[in-house]
């Protein structure tokens, strides 16, 4: 393929409940460090969540933070970190050719809930309503805050793709680079979900919110005793470039995007469709010109819901069941479900495998559900392999949206 059509990852900026840079995050995944903690939120009360502890004022003033949003702050931090990690001389970049493409699950709920609460303290006097409400709650806000902070004048927008949004952001960045619409893309996903009580109430009403006396063991994908999702926040943005440009400046390359696909279940608001999930993975493999046996690792979406885990493993079996060399792991067992950010965080946590050949495990799976059994499921301890060449990253979401991204080890 023409090197102008080959898209590579040259920078990673992230914040997760158990780390706010790739080195710290990867170490947590290899040593079994969970990021889930006790949490209490207005109206809902005590629960559990994955919360990030990144230095927000590293790239923003306190005034910026008061004016903006939590999702925007996460995005600004991740974007700046991704650029710094890439080694690009930002002073020499034509920012009109930089695009910002951020996947989100939802946006504006946090700000609206807080503002409704604040106005209730003044007898619902509308004169006390924040004049920042509109720019805070528009759907493009997190991406827009990045452009304001970094003086980027190229295109920006957010992609609402439920919990497949992180992968959707990557895919959009790849496509815009291949089309020649941008020369550099900051792409990925963000989420501020734990700061809205509504999401906790909704999952609790569905009996899908995790409970555990030990917060670190609350997120239990594939475990027979799993009891639901742990809601988390986070963000991960990648610096994406054409291979030709990355080579020209001698950039380090984490991985190449070898293939991707998105499709729709068209069958239910909430329940996933394993046949459509399998088809999505198969389409990604076809786009990458790979057989299933070539994939070394499948990074699962599994959220620790009773049916979701079983159905995804069924789909993975359908596609990879004959491959004795394909490993399977999960990252939500460490960080919970960071919604629109989680797909990118899951991919980022596995990227170092290209260099060291180590696959981080799924934790908290102490009693594997027989319906979730699959060959080479990595549980409890990391696995050292002879080498990793291809990783397939699954992300699925409500209203039946599926995504798969295949990252390849870059080999000159």
* CATH architecture label name of the largest domain: 3-Layer(aba) Sandwich
CATH topology of the largest domain: Peroxisomal Thiolase, Chain A, domain 1
Category from helices, strands and their pairing: alpha/beta
Number of helices: 14
Strand order of the largest sheet: 5-4-6-7-1-8-14-13-9-10
Percent helix: 25-40%
3D shape = globular
How confident overall, as mean pLDDT? 97
**For the report, how would you describe the main beta sheet?**
10 strands, mixed
Indicate the CATH class of the largest domain: Alpha Beta
Flag low-confidence runs.
none
**Total domain units:** 2
Helix-strand pattern: EHEEHHEHHHEHEHEHEHEHEHHHEEEE
What percentage of amino acids are in beta strands?
15-25%
CATH homologous superfamily assignment of the largest domain: Thiolase/Chalcone synthase
Terminal Cα separation, in Å?
A: 13 Å
If you compute it from the alpha carbons, what radius of gyration comes out, rounded to the nearest whole angstrom? Answer: 20 Å
Number of strands: 14
Explained architecture:
It is a single chain. By secondary structure, the protein is α/β, with parallel strands linked by helices. The protein has two domains: 7-248, 3-Layer(aba) Sandwich (Peroxisomal Thiolase, Chain A, domain 1), CATH 3.40.47.10; 259-408, Thiolase/Chalcone synthase (Peroxisomal Thiolase, Chain A, domain 1), CATH 3.40.47. It contains 14 helices and 14 strands. The strands form three sheets. It has a ten-stranded mixed β-sheet with strand order 5-4-6-7-1-8-14-13-9-10, sandwiched between helices. It has a two-stranded antiparallel sheet with strand order 2-3. A two-stranded antiparallel sheet has the order 11-12. 55% of the residues are buried. The mean pLDDT is 97.
């Amino acid at each position: 393929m023409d090197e102008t059509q080959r898209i590579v990852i040259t920078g990673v900026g992230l914040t997760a409940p158990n780390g706010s840079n790739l080195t710290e995050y990867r170490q947590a995944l290899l040593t079994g460090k969970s990021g889930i903690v006790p949490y209490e939120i207005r109206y809902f009360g005590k629960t559990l969540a994955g919360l990030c502890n990144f230095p927000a004022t590293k790239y923003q003033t306190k005034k910026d933070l008061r004016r903006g949003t939590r999702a925007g702050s996460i995005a600004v931090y991740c974007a700046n970190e991704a650029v710094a990690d890439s080694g690009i001389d930002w002073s020499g970049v034509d920012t009109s050719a930089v695009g910002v493409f951020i996947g989100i699950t939802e946006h504006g709920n946090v700000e609206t809930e807080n503002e409704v609460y604040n106005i209730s303290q003044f007898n619902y006097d509308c004169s006390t309503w924040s004049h920042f409400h509109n720019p805070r709650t528009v759907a493009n806000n997190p991406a827009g805050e990045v452009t304001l902070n970094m003086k980027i004048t190229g295109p920006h927008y957010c992609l609402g793709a439920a919990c497949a949004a992180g992968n959707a952001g990557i895919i959009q960045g790849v496509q815009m680079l291949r089309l020649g619409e941008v020369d550099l893309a900051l792409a990925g996903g963000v989420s501020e979900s734990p700061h809205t009580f509504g999401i906790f109430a909704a999952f609790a009403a569905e009996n899908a919110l995790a409970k555990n006396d030990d917060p670190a063991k609350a997120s239990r994908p594939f475990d027979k005793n799993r009891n639901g999702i742990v809601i988390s926040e986070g963000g991960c943005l990648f610096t994406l470039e054409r291979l030709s440009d990355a080579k020209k400046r001698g950039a380090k390359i984490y991985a190449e995007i070898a293939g991707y696909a998105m499709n729709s279940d068209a069958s239910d608001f909430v329940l996933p469709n394993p046949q459509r999930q399998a088809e999505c993975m198969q389409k990604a493999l076809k786009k990458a010109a790979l057989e299933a046996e070539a994939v070394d690792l499948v990074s699962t979406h599994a959220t620790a819901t009773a049916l979701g885990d079983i159905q995804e493993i069924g789909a993975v079996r359908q596609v990879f069941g004959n491959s004795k060399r394909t490993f399977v792991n999960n990252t939500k067992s460490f960080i919970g479900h960071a919604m629109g950010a989680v797909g990118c965080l899951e991919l980022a946590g596995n990227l170092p495998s290209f260099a060291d050949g180590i696959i981080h495990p799924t934790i908290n799976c102490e009693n594997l559900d027989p319906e979730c059994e699959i060959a080479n499921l990595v549980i409890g301890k990391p696995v050292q392999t002879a080498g990793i060449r291809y990783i397939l990253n699954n992300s699925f979401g409500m209203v039946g949206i599926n995504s798969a991204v295949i990252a390849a080890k870059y080999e000159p």
